[in-house]
Design brief:
35% helix, TIM Barrel, 8-stranded parallel barrel, alpha/beta, 380 residues
């Protein structure tokens, strides 16, 4: 009888540690050098230089509000089903995640799905099936954004159940566990509604901080840095403020991935003689909402002989010609942000979106900057 107790104890301990490995985010902190791709960009998957990335997000799968299942439109299905094998031709080690939702997705549908155990299960089970059947290595939730305390609580419950489900699926199939990530507001505080940080930390491998869209013609009557890393005197939103907020709320830095845009916003200046940040405008320029991809910005600069300015205080760029003013991130801003992310001990960085780059210029600079950055750790 006494001889069986040590064996039982060993079995119990072994099972406990195995369970912990399944339900907790991986301790092997794989760096994330990521970017999103979406079919509406009309940028061919075959043109993605995946050698610059460790992870690529295929966006977006949809949520069917009737049955709460994740679906891929018939138009996108052929591209989604071959996405992984296509990007792995140039980089066999790149991991792919199927992203669900997006900025124009029905927020009410996500809130409704997350509010009920049955509908959450429908979402979770269908997401796992779709990821596996289309060859993805993980799943990414882009619910923008849970906007009440109840929705945030349900968001946390959804994440916990998702983690348990992918762990169980991996155990039953003997396949590597699907990665789980989410694109979140740049701060843990969404206009006084707090994210369930502990649920995020225990359920997701990492979160993608959308540290951009701080200023734009659709909601800003003055020019401003669309993706400032720093804000003078904390006068406005910034990537650094968001990172600090998440960490102070309890999320480990190693689960934070800093986001930056491969696009900018164009305004029409009220006064061409005041081409600076926080200048008065009369609305958007170039496109209806002012958005313009980095490749198009480079072309605008050349075609119009535009003046370019890098602001090292906020870590952002702008250019102007006549009354057209564009705020964006160029190479120096991207490199500075990548170095910041590594020095802060973050998991990595990501961009939206790969198709807006200019011949992979920003992606190349970002990847090299991460690899070249040396983290100096002080001994006390």
């Amino acid at each position: 009888m006494s001889s069986t107790k040590p064996t039982s104890l060993i079995v119990s301990i072994t099972f406990f540690f195995f369970f912990c490995l399944l339900v907790q985010p991986s301790s092997a902190q794989t760096v994330v050098k990521g970017s999103y791709w979406f079919p509406e960009s009309e940028f061919p998957v075959t043109d993605i230089n995946s050698s610059h990335f460790t992870h690529l997000f295929c966006a977006f799968a949809d949520l069917n509000s009737q049955n709460n299942q994740v679906t891929i439109s018939s138009t996108n299905q052929p591209k989604f089903s071959t996405f992984t094998q296509t990007v792995q031709r140039r980089n066999p080690s790149v991991k792919t995640l199927m992203s669900i939702g997006g900025g124009i997705a029905n927020k009410s549908a996500f809130a409704s799905m997350a509010s009920n155990p049955t509908s959450r299960k429908s979402f979770i089970d269908s997401s796992i099936r779709l990821a596996r059947s289309n060859g993805f290595h993980g799943l990414d939730l882009d619910w923008e954004y849970p906007s009440s305390a109840t929705e945030m609580n349900n968001f946390g419950t959804l994440l916990r159940e998702w983690r348990s489900a992918v762990a169980a699926e991996a155990s039953s199939t003997s396949r590597p566990r699907l990665l789980l990530a989410a694109a979140v507001f740049y701060s843990s505080d969404y206009y006084s509604v707090l994210y369930p940080v502990q649920a995020v930390a225990s359920s997701l491998d990492w979160v993608n901080l959308m540290a951009y869209d701080f200023y734009g013609p659709g909601w800003s009557t003055v020019t401003g840095p669309p993706a400032a890393l720093n804000s003078p005197s904390n006068a406005g939103p910034s990537g650094d403020a968001g990172v600090r907020a998440w960490i102070q709320a309890g999320l480990p830095a190693t689960q934070l991935v800093l986001g930056f845009p491969y696009y900018g916003y164009a305004w029409r200046l009220s006064n061409a003689n005041s081409p600076s940040y926080y200048a008065a405008t009369t609305g958007s320029a170039i496109s209806p909402d002012g958005s313009i991809g980095y490749g198009q910005i480079r072309k605008f600069i050349v075609d119009n002989g535009a003046t370019t300015v890098y602001n090292s205080t906020v870590v952002g760029d702008y250019c102007y010609a006549g009354t057209t003013w564009i705020g964006y991130d160029d190479n120096q801003s991207i490199v500075t942000k990548v170095r910041y992310a590594k020095q802060k001990g973050l998991r990595g960085y990501f961009s939206w979106h790969v198709g807006a780059d200019d011949n992979s210029g920003l992606s190349r600079s970002a990847s090299r900057a991460w690899d070249a950055t040396t983290v100096i750790r002080r001994k006390f």
